[in-house]
Write the structure tokens for this entry.
Amino acid sequence: MYLIDKNSKIPLHIQLYKEIKKEIIHNLKVGDKLQSIRKVATIYNLSKTSVESAYSQLLAEGYIDSYPKSGYFVTDTNYKNFKKDSNIDIEKKEQKDDFLYDFFHARLEKDSFPLKLWKRIFNKVIDESIDFCTYHDAKGEYGLRLEIAKYLIESRGVNCNANQIIVCNGFINSMGLLIKLLNKKHDTLAIEHPGYYAAREVFELSNYKIKKIPVGKNGIDLRKLEKSEAKLVYITPSHQFPTGVTIPISNRLKLLDWAEKNDALIIEDDYDSELTYETRPIPALQGLDRVGRVIYVGTFSKSLSPALRISYLVVPKFLLEEFSGVFESRVCLFTQKTLERFMNEGHWDRHLRKIRTLNKKKYNLMKKCLEEKLGSSMKIVNQGGGLAIHISPKVSFDWNKLEKLAIKKTIKLHYAKEKSGGEWQALMMGFGGFKEEEIEDAVNSFSEIWHECIIE
Amino acid sequence: MYLIDKNSKIPLHIQLYKEIKKEIIHNLKVGDKLQSIRKVATIYNLSKTSVESAYSQLLAEGYIDSYPKSGYFVTDTNYKNFKKDSNIDIEKKEQKDDFLYDFFHARLEKDSFPLKLWKRIFNKVIDESIDFCTYHDAKGEYGLRLEIAKYLIESRGVNCNANQIIVCNGFINSMGLLIKLLNKKHDTLAIEHPGYYAAREVFELSNYKIKKIPVGKNGIDLRKLEKSEAKLVYITPSHQFPTGVTIPISNRLKLLDWAEKNDALIIEDDYDSELTYETRPIPALQGLDRVGRVIYVGTFSKSLSPALRISYLVVPKFLLEEFSGVFESRVCLFTQKTLERFMNEGHWDRHLRKIRTLNKKKYNLMKKCLEEKLGSSMKIVNQGGGLAIHISPKVSFDWNKLEKLAIKKTIKLHYAKEKSGGEWQALMMGFGGFKEEEIEDAVNSFSEIWHECIIE
DNA sequence: GGGTATTTGTCCGTATGTATG
DNA sequence: TCATACATACGGACAAATACC
């Protein structure tokens, strides 16, 4: 006896389908005959179509077989699987630690992702019924690569075409791919010091030897780079991480010279180019490269959403062939197509303009608040663009106490501790993750613990 | 065959109306019966209403007559001369290097991806406004990992919990991650021969030494595996690729013994487990493992869509810590969340049941067609599950000619050429990518060239 | 045991409700 | 508000399998 509720919101054929499925799983044996469509329709006062459609769903899912003009019979494929009687020993989800304020520089403001828009575009994309059943271009969808190339040429002065773009799946994936390409020719990486730790770690994990090259006020020390004899260097020329310095044009040319003479390669990470708000943004180093020694690395994680998992490489043409072979597309096709359309319809440009304006406002506010609250006890170490203001104390200061107090107050601070040449210790007061209206409160909270650490 | 463009701004019923009108004028005779509304709706994936409305317009304009409960028939008033040669703007389809028939085993039937459903669930997910602005769990979303664990436990007999699952971004990415983990402890991989070339290539690319171990009728040769002294082996125990053999329980236990004694690891690739249709599927090797020597590899590419880029690893607990650190989430959050919900609401189970049922049907049809068309000139090499029937000629046969003819007819054939022990050459007649109604035509076309290659 | 009435799956046309933009 | 597209629900027509006389 099936329970069918005519007043339920659940359609009749679905109700019936579920009831019969239950019956098959619990009470019926292989080969048992189901009641005929007409019989069920009569008994439960349903139309034949409803019953028919319930049966046909069960048929499609393999619960029953149909023998035309004869009846429906329970199939032999309803194995009880391997279900253990006990429920899964679900271990507790690891508790994510949450902070009151996190001064990390490369955070995105909550709700900055254009959800509504993304939804609309996604729906358009999915209605276009692309072929989701075959494998796709290993470098990423051509249309998306084209949009990225257009953007890079126009906004970053990069010199490339769509075929040089490879869509990856986040910064680390980009680096991983690169390493796969290079590891037959390179085993040593030169990297700025202080520099981006995550890049160093990826290469270290792949057993690269790391040569730390100091960073001066004109960026990486070229003489020491030359002396290191490395043939591969990772740099952040537009805004050095974490110092924020920019390599001037003269040094850029020297760097390219170095690469050409030594048959070396330069990995240019343009990590925060989308976020800065200079009136005259610095074009990419790659655009100056005439001989194909620069590999350009970019990402949408910091400007759009880290949850999308889209980044890209721009590789010199001579390296292109190496990417064919076992490599495969890395990013969900829906996401690629949606981003392609997002860019193509101009939303990307609009989005960037929006966050740039916002970041400029936030930078000014952050600076004002810091100066007001910390006043003469602090000096600002770097002033350039970027999403953080680096400060250090002008007075005797107890760094250890600061760390402890910050933990106690659940304020996450970020230090630039590495030493390059002389001692270099600063706090990176990032504002990327704060909303405009949060900044004052955040600085206030920080100011309280800061002042406690000043040694009289 | 009507051309219906779902993207077009022209309403579907209008498009259909025009197409049918064209058909009536050019190809149909008075009294010919049109296909039923339901049939057309199914074939072109339209709603019955759209078709009905096209038909009713044709009815109104006198192209067809309706005989209720019986069908629509072409009337005798279709004067051919009033038709204007209006703009024949049928767009050219992009010419992909497409095959007439591709007998690859692991293809998905076109349109098998549940687009509508996916769209609906995606919209639900995006309306929940998750936090898209922070970085997420590096192993993959917890909820999704839980769903995968539930599925693996119940349907594959895998012994795991959600924390052992790591969401990756396709088979090669899974392997890449694994290699990163292992390369400090392993440099040699044992692999079945013949075996899955893509797995071998990934390891080769990472400079692994490869030991090819022959496959017998009980799967990988255990004695030779032992003699190889490898400490890492890649196998496909449920359906060996490409021979289709299954490792029996006795050998599975021996394999696990070997791993335990030699402190070795087993990579179990369960690549086609979702697709097969045996009444009693073979549980995973991993489920027998009591000491944590098995790494289980699975994917959604073959059962749902390769465009999603979702695969997963199940790693033994002792390896888990190694995965923290620089690794980062690999799959678009939207996609993860959508899949999580897709599984949670039971659609995954239903989807699997459907494709299994379909595959069973297709297997039977394929076998029947092959036997009918090739008859005594062929013998079936393997009969087990899987998505291909392996055949080889029983008569003198010109393999070279077959290859050439296949190219000429744009039929893509797949060979199992590798020799293991004795000569072993077979054609893998895969049916995964065909729709049910295509199989007969595909085999017919193949049969034509097959017979030309028989040497009298 | 052979013809006939009934049952049965399947295909069909139609009407109405509902979500979407 | 309106058109479009789809989901839900109804009952008729048909041919083959089955049961019955």
Remarks:
- Residues 168 and 279 of chain B are 30 Å apart (CA to CA).
- Chain B has 13 helices and 16 strands.
- The longest helix of chain B spans residues 347-374.
- Residues 36-39, 48, 52, 55, 66, 68-72 of chain B lie near DNA strand C (CB under 10 Å from a C1').
